[in-house]
Amino acid sequence: MFGLADCNNFYVSCERVFNPSLNGIPVVVLSNNDGCVISRSNEAKDIGIKMGEPIFKIRDLVKKENVKVFSSNFALYGDMSWRVMERLRLLFPGIEVYSIDEAFLNLNGVKSSELKNMAHNATTVIKRETGIPVSIGVSKTKTLSKIAAKLCKKYPALNNSCVMIEKRDISKVLQKFPIEDIWGIGRQYSKMLQSNNIDTAWKFIQCNPDWVKSKMSIVGLKTYKELNGEPSFDFEDNTQDKKQICTSRSFANDLYEHEEIIMAVAKFAASCAQKLRKQRGVASRAVVFVLTNPFKDNTPRDYRSIVINFENATDSTFDIVRMCTKAVTSVLKSGYGYKKAGVILSEISIKGETPGNLFCDKDLLAEGRLMKTLDEINAKYGRETLYSASQGVYKMRYNMNMLSPRFTTIWDDIIKVKI
Ligand SMILES: [Mg+2]
Averaging pLDDT over each range in 227-236, 372-381, 389-398, which range is the top one? Predict the structure, then answer.
């Protein structure tokens, strides 16, 4: 049996935990750079604000309905996510973190008669201990548990938990469930299916499996089987480490100054290195990429990605920053406005389990101690208290004009109570 725990309107819910005056009113959170709506309270949904809508298009509505608008505060959301996931870990036999606000639950060994109580209890505990409302859907497969979790949001009477295991219940739900809302069926496949008059999950599972496979490949067939109650996507225990670590951003403005881009890349490389050490990994390869604004006509366009193979697998911020900045420096062209850059680390292995290089003349132990100290200081005094000089003193210019305090990760931002 599988479950899916999904935080309701997650970013908005995080904002509400520390600012209860936001309860009951329309609230939205914007993407990086204050571009589009990426999280909406139910009240915001009710007045017709769509997911992904650019904020400039709804200025009037925001004003008229007095919608509260926030820049995304990932320091806060990341920490709140961690709190929710840790609670889930205690409450269920196993969890697979799927995204910042979702986790699959391994319910093997739990008696059917206990599922409803277990799910309901978890939503209550998480709300009480973290302040975040969570919906939990339970069913025979991952895909069906996703559907069950969606039902919770649609029907408040379910009280945030839905166990859907009786065949009769499943059929009833699938008959009404729109094809485009099924997990794993993208826009292209939805269109294709709709053009074949298949517009619900129910009609989809009536299809011939060979036809499904021929039109939608093996992954489509797996979704088909899952909807028929046959588990085809395994539970992945992701205490496992990441095979790739990526940090990338779009800039608020197109950057023409090479120095600014190089500093940004240094910053991304440092952030990747820190994530790498967190999972006790070392990387042997990095890819650095830069691109110009693809939406701007009449300006020169460029996309560059450079692969760097490290001589020795490393987790050192200084090594990684140095190699990535050198690589990006070699490809930047003058007169081009760069809109986005990023760093991806790969070929990751566990530190201490990779063969060393006999000819490496670096004092690796000293480097290791230095990195440990760097991480400890930054953990204690806040991100980037210490950083590589190549990152510059330049703060990346994002538009973040409506940012709430980082209530849980920065001492100065901690909530103050008058008594
Ligand atoms: Mg969610």
Answer: 227-236
CA–centroid distance, 82 to ligand 1, in Å, is 14
Domain boundary residue, one of 201, 227, 253: 227
pLDDT band at residue 399, thresholds of 50, 70 and 90? Answer: low
Distance 192 CA to ligand 1 centre (A): 27
182 and 265 part of one domain: no
Q: What is the pTM of this model?
A: 0.68
At 112-135, the pLDDT tens digits run 999 999 999 999 999 999 999 999
* H or E element at residue 268: helix 258-278
For ion ligand 1, residues whose CB falls within 5 Å: 6-7, 10, 101
Q: What's the 229 CA to ligand 1 centre distance in angstroms? A: 23
pLDDT, average across residues 363-367: 78
For residue 331, report the distance from its CA to the centre of ligand 1, in Å.
40
In the prediction, which pLDDT does 397 show?
54
Separation of CA 13 and ligand 1 centre (Å): 10
The Cα-based distances of 268 to 206, 213, 288, 337, 345 in angstroms read: 48, 41, 9, 19, 11
> Does 296 lie in the same domain as 217?
no
Ligand 1 center–CA 9 separation, angstroms:
5
- Structural domain of 264: 245-391
- Output the CA–CA distances (angstroms, integers) from residue 260 to 176, 193, 265, 331, 338, in the order listed: 52, 47, 9, 14, 10
